[in-house]
## 1
Amino acid sequence: MATIEFWGGVGVIGGSKILIQQDGHRVLLDIGLDIPSGGDLFRLPVRRRPGRELADRLRLGGAPALPGLFAPEALEAGSPLAEPAGETAVFVSHPHIDHVGLAGFVRPEVPVHAHTDAVDVLTALAATGQGLTHGEPNWRRLTDNQRVSVGPLEVECVPVDHDVPGASGYLVHTPDGTLAFTGDYRFHGHHPQRSWDFVDRAAGSAVLVTEGTTLGWDNPERPRDEQDVARDFAALLERTPGLVLLSLYPRDIDRVRAFLSIAEAAGRTIVWTEQIAAFLRLVGVPQALSPAEVPLTELHAEPGRYVLMPDPNDLPSLLDLPVGDGYPLACLAHANGEPLGPFEPRWAPFTDWLTALGIPLRQIGCSGHAGQDDLHHMLERLRPDVVFPIHTTSPTRLHPPRGVRRVQAAYGSSYTFGGDSV
C-alpha cells in the first residue's frame, strides 16, 4: 500500500517535502530549504561553513533525514544517510528556494525533475552567480502534462499559476489512488486558468496536499491582483516627478514584462542591477538594461525619465543617485522584491536609508499565493477524500466541505493510502 510522509512545510510557510512510497520506490515532491518555526538559525548575519552546509542543517533538524537521498560527500563522514535506498526520484514544483534549495545536494543517480520553464530560470540563475548551494543537479526537463514512471508510481506534471515561470502541481498516480500536490499557486495572477485546470484534472483525488500560506493572514479584503499592481505602478510613474526606485522580484517574468511596457508608455526606462539584467536577458528579456548602459550622468540629467532597481546589499550607493534635497521628489515602488518584508533582517536598514534620504516607500505588490476564499472554492470543486494543508502556520483554518476529511500532517509521520491513517 502507498504511504505518504511529510518532511517539511509542516506548521511553517515554505520547506515543502512530501515523500510517497510504494514497494520500495520513492517519489519526493519538492526539496526546499527548511525555515524552522523558531526562526532560521542560518539567517543573516550567520555565515554558512563551506562544505558543511547540509551536514550542519541535518544536525539541527533543518533538512530531511532520508537515507539514499543526498550525496555522501555532503554528509558527515560515516553517516547512515549515505547508504543507498530504493529507486528514488525528485520532482520540484517551482524555482523558489523554499521548494528547490536542497536540490544541489541530491546524489547524482537520483533524477531531479522540474518543468522546462522552471529549469530555464534555474540555469539562468546559476549562470549569473545566483545558483543553488553545492551546484546544480542534472535537471530532467518536464513539459505540460508529461508523465514519469517510478516503479508502480506515475507522476504527472500539471502547470499552475504562481509568480515564477514553470510553476507546476503534480498528480502522483498510485495503485491505491491519486495524490494531488498543488505546489504554490494562486487564482489572481496572470494565468488563473492554469490553476483552475489543475483543480479540474485533480478532481476526486484520494489525497490532496495543498499549500495554505494565506490561511495564517487576517485580511478580510479581497486579494490584490496583477491588475491592481499594474495600475498602481502606472500611477506612481505619473505622479512622481523624479527618479522612481523599484524593488521587484526578478523571477516574476510576467510582471517584469508588464512593468517594462508600463514604463515605456510613461516615457521611462527601467535600469536593473548588473546581475539581474544579465539574468533577465538569459530568460528572454533582451531589453533589460544595466547601469553599464545607462550611466549616472544620464540619471542625474533627467531623473524623471528613469526607473532604477537599487542593490539592497549596497545601500550607500543610494547616495550616488539623484534623490533627496535638491532633486525632484523620488519614491520607491516595492513590488515583492528584496528585501521581502519586515521579517527579513535587511528590511530595517533598507527602510532606514529610505527615510534618511526622504524617499517614500509605496508597497504595490500582490501575493503569489491563493487567497482564503479561493482555497475554499478550490476545495469545493476538487473534493478529494482527504486534504492535508501544509506550507501554512494555520492549517486548521482550512474548512473542507462535508465528505472531505482534513488531516493535520505531523513531521516525519507516515500515512497510508486507503488506511485508517488517511
Note: The CA atoms of residues 96 and 180 lie 20 Å apart.
## 2
Amino acid sequence: MPTPDDSSTGDRIKEHRRRARLSQRELSERIPYSYSLLNQVECGARVASAAFTAAVAAALGIDTALLAGPRHVTDTQHGRLAALVRPIRESLALYDLAPGDRTPARPVAELVLDADRLCQEVRATHLRKAARALPGVMGDLTLAAATAPTTETWRALASTYRTAHDIAVKLGFPDLAVVALDRMGWAAGRASDPCLAAIRQYRRALGHAEAEQGLGRRLVEAGQALVADQTSREGLAVAGQLHLGASAVAARAGDSGAVEQHIAAARELADRVGGEAPEVHWLSFGQMNVTLHEMGAAITMRRYDDALRQARAVKLLPATLTSRRSRYLVDRALVEMETGHLDASLQHLVAARRTAPEQTRYHPRTRETVTGLLHTSRRTSESLVGMATWIGL
C-alpha cells in the first residue's frame, strides 16, 4: 500500500483537486497563485512551497498534511538525522521526572555558560555539534532546576529548549520543534521571565504562520502583551522581533499594509535599541535584521522584483551571524532565479553552501531553487548537478 511519501506534493494536489471535481483553472481561481504555477507543480516542474501548499489545502478544505510532500532529504539522510535528534527527543520527554539521588555534576554558573554556548553554535550553523552536546546540558540543568531551583537555572533550561526547537526546525523535525516550545514555555513560566515567554510566542507564531494566519497573529499579540511595559534594551529588542514575526505572518496572508506597519514599528524600535543587539537572546535585532525581514516578506508575497532590489542593496556587516548570512544567500539565490538571473542564482547557492553547509543543505528554499534551476537552465552545469546531488535530488 502506498505511503504518503510515495508520491509528490503535485501528485497529491492533483488527486485531491479531482476528488473536489475542480479543474486546474477552477482551483487556480481560488488561490492567490497563477494557473501556470499550479500546472507546473502538478506536473512536477516546480516545487510546491509551504505557502502554496497551505493555500491549496485551504481552497480544498483539507489539512495541509494531506498534501505536504516528502522530506527535503533522502531516506538515508533522514535516518541519520533522526538518530542525531533522538537523544534530544528523549531529554524533552523526561523533563518532569524526579532526579532521584543524583546531584548536578557541575556548578550552575558553568551550565548557564554551556546553554549560551549552544545558542552560539546554532547561530554559527554547527548543528550536529550542538545537537550532540545539547542532551547532556539539558539533563544537567533539569537536575539542577529540580534540586536547587533558581531563576538563573530556569532561564538557562528554557534556553536549551529554545536551542532544541531551533535545531529541530533547521533539520526538518516540526513535531519535535512543537514539543521543545512547550517545554520552553514551561521553564520560562518558572523563571517568571516575560521576555523568554514572548520569544516563545514569536517562535510559535512563525510555526503557525503558513496555514493558520489568524492563529499566528494571535500568538504574536500574546507575545507583545508580555513585553508591553518593558523599557529595557532587552525588552525593546524582543518587542521589535515580535513586530518582525508579525510582518512574516502578514506576508503569508498577503497583507502588504500590515507588513509595512510592522516593519516600520520594528525600525523605530531598532533606532531605540541602538545598533545590532546580538547579546539579547541571540536575536541580533537591529536595522539589518529589519531589512532582511522586509526582503523576506517581499519574497513571501512573490514580489520578486522588489525583493531583488532590496537584496542587491543589502551590505551584510562583518559581524553578521553565519546563520543569517547563509539564509540571506539562499533567499538571494531564489530571487535571482525567479527573476531570470540563473548564473547569479547558482553562485549564491554555492556561496551559501560554503558559508553554512548544514543549514543550506536542509533548507527547503535551497531545494526549491535548485529544482527551478534544473527546469529553466538551457544547459545543466557540473556545479548545478553537484548541488542537486548534494541535497538529494
Note: Confidence is low (pLDDT under 50) at residues 1-6.
## 3
Amino acid sequence: MMMQQDLLEKRQNIERLRQRTSLSKQQNSQLNESIASSWQRSAQAEIPEHRVAAPLLPIPSNSQPTALQHALQHCADELKHIAQQSSMVLAVGDVGSTIIWSASSRQMQSAAESVHFIAGGQWREELVGTNALALTLKTQQSSCVFSNEHYMPSVHDWVCYAAPIIDPHTRQILGVIDLSTVWKNHNSLGLLAAERCASIIQSALLEFQKQHLYIRAFSVPQVLFNGKVMVLTPRQIEILTILALCPQGMTLDTLHQALYGERKVSIGTLKAEMSQLRDILGGMLGSRPYRLLAQVEADFLQAEQALDAGYLDSALKLCSGIFLAKTESPFLCAWRDCLESRLSQAIFNAKETDVLLKHVARFPEAIDAVERLIELMPGNHPIHQTLLKFKQHP
C-alpha cells in the first residue's frame, strides 16, 4: 500500500491538472494517456453538472440470461467473499458499462448505493464521465482510476480497478469487472486483484460453455464448437444461423421456406442436409421441431443485443463486414436488411464522434457515418473539410 502522504500529493497534483482548461505535453505526461483522453471526451459529453449518481435502469425480470450472467451464477459466492474480505465493492458490467451484478462489503455498501454503483447503474463515459468500467471497455485493457481522476465529484473519494472479461473461446470482450474502495486504501496490487476476479469468471464461463456453439456471420462465415472451427458447407452455416435466430425451433416446412423461399428445392434435399448436420453436431441438434440444444452465441446476436441496449460502439465493432454476403435465403436477407437499417438509424442518432471516426477508418464506404460526422463536427475543423471531400468523391 502506498504511503498516505504520497497518495495525498498524487490527489493534489491531479486536482491542479483538473483546474486547467488545457494541458501542455509535460502536464499531459503526468497523467495516464487514457485518463487524459477520457477527460477530454467527458468534457465534450454535456454531462449535467449536478449529476451525483449514474442513471439507473430497471433490471428486466424476463430477459434471456447471457453467457456472462450464467457464469456469474456459478462464481457469485466466491466474488462476494472477495468483496467482503477486501472491504471493497465489486461490480460486473456488460459491454456498455451497465452494471449487471454487484456485491459490496459493509464498509462500501452505502457509498455504492448512493452513486448507483449497483445492478442497473449505467456507467457509460458519455453519461458519467471518466470511470474505470468505461475506460477498460474503451481501451480493452485493465485500468485504474484514482480519486479525482474520476469525472463525477461524488466518486472522488474512490479508487477503482477494472479488468476486461474475455470469452475463453471467441476472445471477444463480454464485459468488465471492477473492484473499488476509498482512495486512501489504494494498492498497487489492485489491478492484479481485478484481473484475478476476471479469471474466476472466465473459468466459470468455460464450465458453462462445455457444449458451446459460436457462429460468425460477418466477413468470413465460421462456426466454432468449444473453440474449434467446424468444417461446414455455406448451406449448413445458413441453417445453423436460421436456427440461432429462431431458438423456439422450426418445422421442416418452415425451415425449408426460410432457407429456400420459392426456389425449386425438394424437401428431401433439406432432409439430407439436416441428416448430415445431425451427424456432425450429434446431440446438439434436436428435431420436431428442429432446434439447437447447445449453448448458442453469435456475432449477429451480440450485435442485435448491443443495438437493443444502445451500445453503438460495440455493435459497430461486431458488424465487421456484410452479414452472410452470399446468402440467397429470403429469411436471412430480410434479417440482414433489418439489421442494416437499425444500424444506420443508430448512426444517424449518434453523438460520439470518436466512435464514428473509428468506424469510417475501418469502413471508408460507410457513407451514413460520414454524413453524420459532417453534422457533428464544427465547420472549421480540419476533419470536416476532409469529410466533405470524401462525400463528394468516395
Note: The CA atoms of residues 256 and 265 lie 9 Å apart.
## 4
Amino acid sequence: MAAERFQSFGLATPPAPRAIGADDGIALLKGGQAKPASLLAYGNGRSYGDSCQNEAGTVVDMRSLNRIRAFNAETGLLEADGGVLLSDIIAHAAPYGLFPAVIPGTQFVTLGGAIANDVHGKNHHRRGTFGCHVETLTLLRSNGKTYRCSATDNARLFRATIGGMGLTGLILSASIRLMRVPSLDIVETATPFRDLGEFFDLAEAADQVNEYAVAWIDQLAGGRNSGRGLLFTGNHAEHGSHAASRAGGTLSVPVRPPFNVLNRPFLTAFNAAYRWKKGRSAAPRQVGYQGFFFPLDGVRDWNRLYGPKGLFQHQSVVPEEAAREAVPALLAAARRAGQGSFLTVLKRFGSIRSPALLSFPRPGYTLTLDFPNRGSATLALLQELDRITVEAGGAVNPYKDARMGADIFASSFPEWPRLEALRDPAFMSSFWARTAKKLDMRRSAVEAAE
C-alpha cells in the first residue's frame, strides 16, 4: 500500500511511513499481535495536522469498512461502518427527510473520524457536537476484545472514544441519530457588519432564531475596516430538494504548484470579490446544501494551492467574556506578521455539553485561520496566537494542529491524563507523542524525584 497517500490535509507534515488495510489491522488486534504504540486508524485524511499520523508506527486505512448496516426512517437511527463517509450518509437519508444533526465544513470525513474528533458545525448553539448524537459505537482494542459502548454500556470507553482522536482503538461501527428536516435546501441570509463589535452585538440574537450561523471575516482589512465581514445565517427551507446532489465539484487542482498560489495579492482580490458577491443583498435566498455547508468541497484537492510546504490551520476558542478583546488581538497579530488567511471563520459556540472526555467546543467564540507554511515566521505567529488564546482562558483545537507545544495542550485540555489512562497501548499518534506523552514523561519524572 502506497504510504505517501496517507497524508494530513494540511500537507505540512510528512505522510505516514507505513499503512495497512482495515482487515489486516483487525486481524492484528484480534490476534493480540499489535505492538505498543504501533497503530492508528486513518479515515479520509481531512485532519489538518498530525493527529491522523503515526510517524513511528503504521496507520490503518479504514475506508474499506464502508457499509450502511441499518437505517430506520421513522426514528432517524442509522448504523454504519466506521469508514463510511458523511456524504454517503447524507445521500442515504435525504430522501426520507433526514440529515445529520451536526455536519463539519466538509462531507468527506468518515463516520469514525467525525466521532474521534467530536466535530462541530454551524449549529453548535442548537445541537452541540457530533458526539451528542452518537447512540452506540463498536470498538476493537488490542486485547482482542470488541466492546459495545454507549452512555450506559462501557461508558468510560464511550466518553473517551468520542473526541479521543483514535487513541482508544478501532471504531468498527456506530449508530447515530439523524434529525428531521423539511428539505436539504437552506434559506440563507448574509448580513454585513462593519467591525467585530457589531458582529458580537448580532451573534447571540442570530443564534436564537437560526439553526445555523457563521461569520466570514475580511482578515486583511485594517484601520477603520478592521474586523469587517459577513454573518451568514440559515435554516432548512420548508419547500426544497430532498435529493442529495453530487458530492464534490468538477473542478480540481491536479498537481501541487511549486509556490503558494494563495498569496497576499490574490487574497486581497478574493476578499473584495467575496464580500461584494455575498454581501450585495440582505434579502434571504434559497441555496443548495452543498454550497452552504461545503463551499470548499467544490474544488477537489484545493489544499494543493498552498504549494510545496502546505498550510497550517489555527483554530481557537475563547470564553464569551474575553472574546471582544481576544478575537481582535488574534486578527491583529496575524496582520502584524504579514500573514494572510484564505478563509477566516468566526462562530459562536453554545452551552450544550458533549459526552466526550476531551472536546474542543465550549461556550464562547471560535476563530479559524489558514496560513501558508512559511517556516519559522509562520511558526512564530502560531505560537503568538496560542499565547493570546490561552491567556484569555481559551483552547487550541488539537485535530487542526501540527505543532502546538505540550504546555499549550495541557492548558487547553487539563483532563488529558484521563484519556491517557484509557488509551489503548497499541495506539499512538504523532500529535499525542509530542504533547501528552511528553507531559506524561515529565509527570513521571517529578513523581520519581519525590
Note: The chain has 14 helices and 20 strands.
